[in-house]
Amino acid sequence: MLFRRFLDFSSDNALFGPGEAVLLAVSGGPDSVCMAHLFNRAATARDLRLGFVWIDHGWRDAREEKTLVRRLAGQWGRPFHAVKVEAARGDSWEARARRARLDALLALAKRRRYHRVALGHTRDDQAETVLMRLTRGAGPRGLGGIRPSRAGFWIHPLLPFTRAEVLAYLNRHGLPWVEDPTNADPKFLRNRLRMKVLPFLEREVNPAVKEALVRAAEALALDDDLLTMEARKIRAAITTARFPFEAWDRTAFIALHTAIERRLVAGVLEERLPRWDSRQVERVCAWAESARKTAALALSGGLTCLLTCDTIYWSPCPKGWPGRELPLPGRVCIAHGLTLEARWGRTAREEGGFSLGPEPPRRARLGPPGPGEELLKRRLKALKVPGVLRPYWPVLRAGRRVLWVPGWDEAVAPEPSTRPNMIVRWSHDA
């Protein structure tokens, strides 16, 4: 029974838990309507709070789909959200539309406090995705296809089911749907693969080619998961510092197998950038293995990879990044999750941070060294902060007075035992 398989697959892959709120991306097509019906059946038993969202890309008249999704949401007593997105046409328009759609879903989920977003990709979509990525030269991670869950937030509960099974389910339950005419437009690569390439492969190469592609993806996904786990262990072993910038032993890094090197760099980019590609990974690895003694490689989103003779540093900010105001107490995020928090505590040692003393100013500013701060630059040099890092190094000031520099113990005020101190502490928010 398809419903039982849906519950088992969701449970086996921890796609959602009791009492959670799940936002269903429902286009009005067969896959998403099937998914919505399955979730609606599961909602009572699993105590789920569901919401329906319909995305309007604005490229055609889609009022029929919107009306259908609104009617189903009302019929099943679920909130209905309609969101309009715009993606500039041109090269990679499909990818732009997808990014705009996911950004809109993420924003809505955060605003309305949904724990997960469910997308209606099927086993057929998996085969098409793997073939499409293969034509683009994807590596093991890409060829592992669509995962049941990504980041514990994006879930794909229909992956076990073929499109034929979905249509049979809809017919059995008398559910309506609307066919999207753009799914037959040959200007889109996925449509050409589905309408021309896959039928040719089924006819001339392997009648079960879609299933073969899915099995290959599942095998590669397992290998990829193992490689990712090993890379995490190795990353911990070669990390020499976490704050203010994550630092790796460069000699240890270049001694690794190329596959592990690339996986480590990809892991950083995946954590800190919404969009990145394999060319950035290859550039970082090539620079790290080169004879350069120092280098600064600017990546997208302000993320910068900095090299010294013996260390690889990851700065979340570009050179000379604009400063940030920090209320005391309070917290400020520099970029890509790197956060400095200030709060009252007893001692810096107990709080795992640095003390500004019992009478700090009410506000401070965190930013890199500015022009003309020769004393500060000499201090950084004395602290052995490499020259290539100094234009990126965070400094906490109150007006012209330097309150604290990472590694500058002289800036830490004495800690009286009877009075609370203002403690500043680094963290990395997801």
Keywords:
430 residues, alpha+beta, Rossmann fold, Uridine Diphospho-n-acetylenolpyruvylglucosamine Reductase, domain 3, 3 domains, six-stranded mixed beta sheet, five-stranded antiparallel beta sheet, 14 helices, globular
How is the topology of this model organized?
Elements lengths: L1 H11 L8 E5 L4 H17 L2 E8 L6 H13 L4 E5 L8 H20 L3 E3 L4 H13 L4 H4 L5 E2 L3 E2 L7 H10 L16 H16 L4 H30 E3 L4 E4 H5 L3 H15 L5 H12 L5 E4 L5 E4 L3 E5 L8 E4 L2 E6 L2 E8 L2 H4 L2 E2 L7 E5 L6 H9 L12 E4 L2 E4 L16 E8 L2
Parallel strand pairs: 1-2, 1-4, 2-3, 4-6
Antiparallel strand pairs: 5-6, 7-8, 8-11, 9-10, 10-11, 12-16, 13-14, 14-19, 15-19, 16-17, 17-18
